[in-house]
Amino acid sequence: MTVAALFLLPALVLLGALVVHPIGYSVYRSLFDRTGDRFAGLDNYRRLFTDEATRTALGNTAVWVVVAPVVATALGLVFAVLTERVRWGTAFKLLVFMPMAISMLAVGIIFRLVYEQDPDRGVANAVWVGVHDTFAPSSAFPRARPRPDASLVPAPGGGYVTRAPVRAGVPVLLPLVGVPPEALPDGTRPARPAAAESGKVTGTTWQDFTRGGGGRRDAVDPRESGYAGMRVEAVRDGRVVAATKARADGTFTLPAAADGAVLRLPAANFREPYAGVEWLGPALVTPAVIGAYVWMWAGFAMVLIAAGLAAVPRELLEAARVDGANEWQVFRRVTVPLLAPVLAVVLVTLVINVMKIFDLVFVIAPGSVQDDANVLALQLYRTSFGTDADQGVGSAIAVLLLVLVVPVMWFNIRRMRREARR
């Protein structure tokens, strides 16, 4: 007995110094005020549920606990099952597990760049804008506008219309300004006046500005550029009777149906370029940070589940297939139940992990939205060591975190004992 006690003594000393004493002191400190001199009782705990920032942190932590472990475990399960059937499965597992070798700080910096609002810098928005523009291209003339006294006036609902109806055989001039020369569409050519055509409405829409000066106002000069691709519509009684797009030199031609109608440059010509999604805005910052966490921890789940999957008896799977079960039924009714102990280990581990998540939120969420992305571990840090530090309330948050983790640990211990008795 004495020998056993001597062997256990170093471990007990370390356990007391690193676990028991910090927990005991945190409970003790949570009962005192900011200075630590006056006994406050349960006042600090009452403040946890009346302070708006702490309530937000509690809500976000609940979202993390429900979403992040489930998604990471589900992805790990899918990856483990699918990679078992492909020749390059080992290489894929290596790639998926590789983020685990990166620190939380580094992952936060990486995803802070990934979620940049500018599509030229942020990968997420570059992909999103690329897909969006494939189906709804942005306009090349978002800032084009007529001069105040030009022949074009603002139209109801956006865009511009001519002041007066147009006539066939009389070329129309639709001058605009405000588009930087480098922003004009590819293939743009110098503007030229449209030739009159009998029975048709012709005209030119162009950049009525000559770089370096010297051009004539409301006149097509050789050094000015046409608005290639500008949509022009003929509108009569509120209905579009004809439409076309300007050529590379800005000229266009409308059929006889446009005679007597007004010409409209619709609002679609001046739509602002799609800027993508504000991933780190108040609405999406928490899902965005959870996405970074899942990217990092899905590999951990995959490796553990793959190890469990390797121990599943193959004859059970083959028996199910012989009995007529398809692959989905085999997966749902045989593979998943047999992997239940492994899935429980992964899920519980990730739940405990996300309850103390701090690094990713602190690094990824900009200061302006950190209140919206707040979680308990971050609130603990901000309360205890921020500009208005209150270590009494900070200790109360630490105790609350411990209380929330204990049921998960108790469940895990019960599950392990149950497995050991089998």
CATH topology of the largest domain: MetI-like fold
Portion of residues in beta strands equals 5-15%
CATH superfamily of the largest domain: MetI-like
Strand sequence of the main sheet, in spatial order? Answer: 1-2-8-5-6
The figure for the number of domains is: 2
CATH class of the largest domain: Mainly Alpha
For the record, the CATH architecture of the largest domain stands as Orthogonal Bundle
Count of helices? 13
Structural class: alpha+beta
| Helix amount | 40-55%
Distance between the termini: 30 Å
Largest sheet data: 5 strands, antiparallel
Number of strands: 8
Q: In words, what does this structure look like?
A:
- The protein has two domains: 32-126 and 279-421, Orthogonal Bundle (MetI-like fold), CATH 1.10.3720.10; 152-270, no CATH class.
- Helix 4 packs across helix 7.
- It has a five-stranded antiparallel beta sheet with strand order 1-2-8-5-6, with no helix packed on it.
- The mean pLDDT is 88.
- Strand 1 (152-154) and strand 2 form a beta hairpin.
- It is built from 13 helices and eight strands.
- The protein has helices at 2-29, 43-48, 52-83, 89-97, 104-114, 123-135, 285-310, 314-322, 327-338, 340-355, 359-364, 376-385, 391-421; strands at residues 152-154, 160-162, 172-176, 201-207, 231-236, 239-245, 251-254, 262-265.
- With 422 residues, the chain is α+β, with helices and mostly antiparallel strands.
